[in-house]
Amino acid sequence: MDEPVVECRDLTKQYGSLLAVDHLNLTVHKGEIFGLLGPNGAGKTTTILMLLGLTEPTSGSVRVIGLDPARQPLSVKSRVGHLPDQVGFYDGLTARENLSYIAKLNGIRGKEMQDRIRTALDQVGLSDVADRPVRTFSRGMRQRLGVAEVLIKRPQLIIMDEPTLALDPEAVREFLDLIRRLKEDGITIMLSSHLLHQVQAVCDRVGLFHKGRMVLEGTVGELAQRVLGGAYRIHLEADGGTALDEALRCLPDVVQVTRDGARTYHIEARSDLRADVARAVVEAGGRLLALSSDIPRLDEVYTRYFQKEATYAAAA
Amino acid sequence: MQQQPETLTLGRQREGSPWTGLWAVVAKEMADHLTSVRMLILEALIILTAAGTVYAASQSLRDGFGGDTFLFLKLFTTAREPLPAFVGFLGLLVPLLGIALAFDSVNGEFNQRTISKVLAQPIYRDALLFGKFLAGLGALALTLTSIWLLIVGMGLLRLGVPPTGEEVVRSLWFLLVTIFYGGVWLALAMLFSIVFRQPATAALASLAVWLFFTAFWGIIASLLANLLRPVPLGDPLALIDQVQLELALARISPNTLFTEVALATLNPTVRSLGLVLPIQLHNAVLGTPLPATQSMLLTWPHATGLIAATIVLFALGYVLFQRQEIRA
After folding, report:
1. Is A54 on the interface with B (CB under 8 A)?
2. Residue A80: per-residue pLDDT
3. How confident is the model at residue A2 (pLDDT cuts 50, 70, 90)?
4. Which domain holds residue A114?
5. In chain B, which residue's Cα lies nearest the Cα of A107?
6. Number of domains present in the structure of chain A
7. What pLDDT, on a 0 to 100 scale, did the predictor assign at position B143?
8. B34 inside 8 A of chain A by CB
9. For residue B15, what is the nearest residue in chain A, using CA coordinates?
């Protein structure tokens, strides 16, 4: 787990006067699914292009699978798969022909190529339509064909840019399943997306980009801890009066208690306090009616972060 | 800081050959060209004109016009009302073919959003661009060569005499020059396909250049010559000067180069493509054919000119393509 697949140190990219990526430090480990978040223009795509060696960094260093993409682009690109947003195909050619062109560009030929094409088509579930021209494909099928093109080179790292944009919910579900299966095969995945609940559903760790910097990095729980203050939100319904308020506030790790109406409480805490809350209610002589907890949502982290950012900017 | 010198020296090197994946690109593009409807239409057009003009020419030759030497070459150059000669048509159709093969080669990849995908494969941009160019040139050569063979076959059938070695050498040289004449337009259309994001714009720009050289450059060259080297009354040397300038200017146009090559290669009695003064013809036996090698020597500058123009246009496109930002 500790072997870094991607390592950026003080990575900087300047387009004229615009600082697209500003001293970025990023490490992605083997077998991880890492989510890149952030508003448009935050530097996600530029970072991806630098990882692939399609753009040269202004300063700083990048290592992808231990290689420098600017100096050894061919080795990097033969080990790293890239799925651009709205991936395009040669519409007049069939799925199989599109795949074989990509295979040949990777120097894979003959029987090996046929085998790999068959496996890749199986993996994404397109074997039945392999000989149909791509122009007849739906968005979801095209997206899966894009993954097949990436799988053909048996990559160690796959970088996906907005992979679930414009897919219908069923296609999204299938796509996320596919990503999880790839992770089981030991492939490291980086994906950028605006669809936060999807990112949360598959990613082990996420990094939040803002103005060319990675402002937050960690698991969703860690991010929630830092941005929302409390990572756990507990909803409690109990009869207990003001004594209960006090008792709840005195629990360790509680950040905030708000009462909503006569007997509904919202508790923000740094750890999972459900058992302690239940005990506190009982000890305070109250009647416990309902107790539930929210998993922190990435949407909330994201929105809250940028709200705070806006207040700081306004203050400054 | 200690690593600075190392990264500086190594940063200049690129790993591997720039031609990695070249043949995969060539094979795919060739296959695209040969199966595209666009190419089929143009090929049909060229074959029809070839059949029509060469049939008409052979009819004239059977009727005994044009003497009895170099009959095969006359298949290309003999016109019979109302059709012009085949070379005349080639001058128009070959640029069209070259443009049709390349006007959407690079911007098409952008519009289909395939460019970022292809460049994310382990190849360099060099291979993509050069592969596209080679495939275009290959398709052009294939089309022209098959038409050449068709004409030879038709000549055999209709005239009943085999071509002499001399005629074969001349017509092959003409074929080679025709391919590079097409190459100029291919490289131009490819350059425009890099510059313009819309294929239609690139096609129109290429056609505009073609029309400019075909229809207007001759007039402009003569106007310029008149302007730059005015001829005072009764000064024959100034007149020669002016004519020579006009000729030099006219030869900037690939059409002029091609027409002159066609003239000198397919017509062995043409001995010079410039101005010939009566004094230079002193003691010359007029109307005697030149050997093939001499005709080739005569058109050598034209051929190198066409090849050089192709290379310059390709190099220009190459530089622009290397600097292009690929975030589609």
Report:
1. yes
2. 94
3. low
4. 4-225
5. B21
6. 2
7. 93
8. no
9. A72
Put simply, the answer to whether A89 touches B124 (Cβ < 8 Å) is no
Residues of chain B with confidence (pLDDT) below 70: 1-13, 65-68, 285-286, 327-328
Q: Does residue A174 register a pLDDT over 90?
A: no
CATH classification at residue A47:
3.40.50.300
Is A219 in the same domain as A236? no
User: Are A107 and B118 an interchain contact pair (Cβ–Cβ within 8 Å)?
Assistant: no
Shared domain check, A212 and A103 = yes
| 3-class DSSP assignment, residue A208 | strand
d(CA A235, CA B324): 55
Residues of A in contact with B113 (CB under 8 A): 84, 86-88
Does the distance separating the beta carbons of B20 and A54 come in below 8 Å? no
With a cut of 90, say whether residue A310 has pLDDT above it. no
- Determine whether the interchain pair B122/A72 forms a contact, defined as Cβ–Cβ distance below 8 Å: no
Give CA torsion, residues A178, A182, A183, A189, to 10 deg: -90
Over range A215-240, report the average pLDDT.
80
Angle of the B125-159 helix axis to the B86-102 helix axis, nearest 10:
160
Q: What is the pLDDT of residue B2?
A: 37
Rounded alpha-carbon distances, angstroms, from residue A244 to A251, A290, B192 = 11, 15, 77
| DSSP type of residue A127 | G
On whether both A23 and A167 belong to a single domain, the answer is yes
Task: Please tell me the distance in Å from A234's CA to the nearest CA on chain B.
Answer: 45
User: H or E segment at A184?
Assistant: helix A169-184
Say yes or no: A48 and A137 in one domain.
Answer: yes
A–B interface: beta-carbon pairs under 8 A: 84
DSSP 8-state assignment for residue B277: -
Let me know whether A79 and A170 are in one domain.
yes
The tokens for B152 are 């030879």
Confidence of residue A299 (pLDDT cuts 50, 70, 90): confident
Examine the pLDDT at A157 and tell me if it is beyond 70.
yes
Indicate the DSSP class of residue B215: I
Alpha carbon A92 to its chain centroid, in Å, reads: 33
DSSP, res A94: B
Q: What is the CATH number of the domain that holds A236?
A: 3.30.70.100
């697209």: which residue's tokens?
A: A20
The answer to whether residue A316 sits within a structural domain is: no
Decide if A302 is inside a domain: no
Q: Same structural domain for residues A238 and A216?
A: no
> Higher confidence at residue A54 or residue B187?
B187
| Predicted pLDDT at A316 | 62
Distances (CA, A) of B93 to B143, B207, B217, B305: 12, 12, 18, 20
More confident site: A116 or A263: A116
